[in-house]
Structures are given as C-alpha cells and as structure tokens.
Amino acid sequence: MKRVLLFLATNLAVIVVLNIIMTLFGVGRYLTANGIDPTQLLIFAAIIGFSGSIISLLMSKWMAKQSTRAHVIDPQAPRNAQEAWLVDTVHQLAERAGIGHPEVAIYEGAPNAFATGAFKNNALVAVSTGLLQSMNEEEVTAVLGHEVAHVANGDMVTLTLIQGVVNTFVIFLARVVGFFVDRALSRNDRDGIGMGYYLTVIVCEIIFGILASIIVAWFSRQREFRADAGSAKLLGSTQPMIRALARLGNVEPGALPKNFEAAGISGGPGIAALFATHPPIETRIQALQQMQSR
Question: What angle do CA 34, 38, 42 make, to 5 degrees?
C-alpha cells in the first residue's frame, strides 16, 4: 500500500510542479490559446512515462529468471549443501533486514549477483556460479547482504519512480519544444501542427533522453553506496564487504542483461563516468573505510 501511495503521490507531484512552472512563465496560457491543453499533455506524459517503468518492475522477476536462465532453489529441497547454505544465509539476512524471504537463485556466468522484484516481501536474489567459485563464504555473504539491502531499501521501486519522473519530463518537454519550433517555422500561417513538430519531438526526446539517463545513473550510483553500507550493518562489520569488493576489483565482472545491469553487484564499464550505474570499486571501498572510521 505504501508503494501504491508513493507512486500516486509522485505522479501528482510531477503534474503539480510542471503546472506551477508553466503558470509562472505563462507557457500554459500560450499553449491553451494555441490549441494545446497543457494539463492533458501532462497527464498523457505521466501515463506514458510511468507505464513502461511500472510494467518492467512488475515483470522484473520473471524477466530476470528468463534472461539469465537462473535456477531458483527450492528452500524445502536444495540439491546440495551449497544451495542449502545460500538459502539459509539469504533468509537470515532478510530476517535481520526485516523483510520477507526472497527467492534465491543461481545462474551460470562470470562473477556477479543481483536483486530484483516489485515488492520487499517477494523479491529475488540471484548469484552467479562465477561469483560462488571466486569468493569465500564470508565474501559471498557480504554480496548477499548487499543485495538484501537493495531489497530492504526499496531500491527497485525508487529507481522505477525516478525513471518514470524523468520519462514524464522528456515526453512533456519534447512536445512543448516541438510546438514552439513548429509555430516559429510556420509563422502562425496555418492551423494544427506540421512536420517541424514531429521532427523536433524526435530530436528532443533523444537529447532529453540522454540527459535523463545521466540523472538515473547518478541515483543508481547512490543506491550502491547505500547497499554497501547496508551489507556492513547486516554483517556487523565493513570488512567482509570491503574484501568482497576488492575481490571483484580483480576479476572481470559478469555482464547482465541491460534491463538488470543497474541491479548487479558490479556493473560493466559505462560509456563515461556520468552514465555508469555503479561507482568505481575503489570509491566504494573508500566509502566503507570512512564509514568504519566514524
């Protein structure tokens, strides 16, 4: 229920803020006078902007299982001692974090792990075979704590809301700019909208979309710091997470499908630092060391 209220409040806040901005600058009156209802455009932008993000979130567990071909461990009948240990460890961490037991899965691949799911009490935590082979139990536990912290912090929902907000701004602003450009090109000699509108909208959506990606990536990097700190709190020490990160820094991280790259313990290199979903390993270790010294 809290997530539904947060979703509705976020949508309402976006519409209210944009309405206030348009009123202050007189944009709303101009658009209305020229045949575009800004409120309807805002509602349209919010619906389109949030729909894709919400649908992706609701389908995230199924998509993660399918794209990684993960084997979900039956907690009542693990196939071996390692699976039993994984389930038991994740469940213990979840209880410390105050959330329901997530599903636990293993997938084939280079060192990585991720958590996903729309609800705190019905999430998925998955680790790769490469991570299990390259780390000792303490380090794997730290990684699992990191993923459980993501779930407990509601990071999947938060990032979805942020993505929805920036999508709304991209869709709305691209059309407002397109309208003004089309009016300037036509010099008000005709009614309706012309090709200038459509071309401008496409260009603006690309440009604004790139800027939006930078914003979303920044929030994603902040979540990683919080999840690292969350793992340290769940384990009662920063050292296991520091050692796990140091180990990850010495191996090539496993690539995840693009839809789940931000959910991994370690992301691949971005086009540039501004677009990276994860901070550098060294920076994350420094943050934990500073946390330890306090």
Answer: 150
Residue 78 Ramachandran class (φ > 0 left, ψ -120 to 50 alpha, else beta): beta
Q: Residues 111-143: pLDDT tens digits?
A: 899 999 989 899 999 999 999 999 999 999 999
Q: What is the pLDDT of residue 7?
A: 45
Model pTM? 0.78
Distance (Å, rounded) from C-alpha 148 to C-alpha 100?
10
Of 83, 103, 139, 147, the catalytic one is: 147
139 is annotated as an active-site residue? no
Tokens for 22, please give them.
């348009």
Distance CA 19, CA 43 (A): 11
Contact (CB, 8 A) for 115 and 153: no
Cβ proximity of 151 and 126 under 8 Å: no
